[in-house]
Write a structure and sequence with these properties.
Number of strands: 3
Largest sheet: 3 strands, antiparallel
Number of helices: 8
Order of helices and strands: HHHHHHHEHEE
Helix content: 55-70%
Strand order of the largest sheet: 2-1-3
Length: 208
């Protein structure tokens, strides 16, 4: 049908543009930006064409030691508070969350399971201005996303991965949130619904 051909034509154009941008990536930050854009393109294709990805093979979820599971639960809760503050542009409230996040990411506790998450979280108290907090939040989002995929212990409900292509002057950025209604943390409350859900992390099987 003509609509399907038109959709595939647009998809091909978008993917070709992503490939050109990828070839021109100058560093890892550029490569990450292109990857996020390509991911958004694939999710657009899924929504436009009605395709469904093949079901992933079930795997046994990893488990954290009890102390780390408790710390990760605290990190997820404090991350939610930071997200809420940034979504309204409240830098003061955002800064109030950073010390707790850094405390929960004590390096000796995470050295084996998620050292990059700990490294990024410990840098948060150094962010003061709203823009600095947004940059730090993006880094934290990426690492927390990876960690929760391996250790979903804190999730009593799904965590939605949301991508905004306009964040950081068009470079794009992602974050995690509860609930599907977009709440963008990168525009200080100015564009709260800019973005789309591109993925989901389900909670652990037994609800831990």
């Amino acid at each position: 049908p003509a609509p399907a051909r038109a959709a595939w034509s647009e998809a091909a154009m978008r993917l070709a543009n992503d490939a050109v941008e990828g070839e021109g990536a100058g560093d890892l930050a550029d490569a990450h930006r292109v990857f996020e854009g390509t991911t958004a393109t694939l999710h657009w294709m899924r929504g436009r064409l009605g395709t469904t990805p093949p079901a992933a093979a079930p795997r046994e979820r990893d488990r954290l030691p009890a102390e780390l599971a408790e710390r990760l639960t605290g990190l997820w809760e404090s991350y939610g508070e930071l997200h809420a503050a940034l979504s309204t542009g409240d830098a003061t409230a955002a800064r109030a969350t950073t010390a707790r996040l850094a405390e929960l990411a004590a390096p000796e506790a995470w050295s084996e399971h998620a050292p990059e998450l700990a490294r990024v979280a410990r840098r948060l108290p150094g962010a003061f201005e709203l823009e600095e907090l947004q940059v730090a939040f993006e880094e934290l989002s990426d690492e927390l996303d990876r960690t929760l995929q391996d250790y979903p212990d804190p999730l009593v409900e799904p965590a939605y991965r949301v991508h905004c292509p306009m964040a950081f002057d068009g470079g794009g950025a992602a974050w995690l949130q509860t609930g599907r209604e977009v709440s963008n943390p990168y525009f200080g409350g100015g564009m709260p619904r800019c973005g789309s859900v591109v993925g989901v992390i389900e909670g652990s099987v037994d609800g831990r």
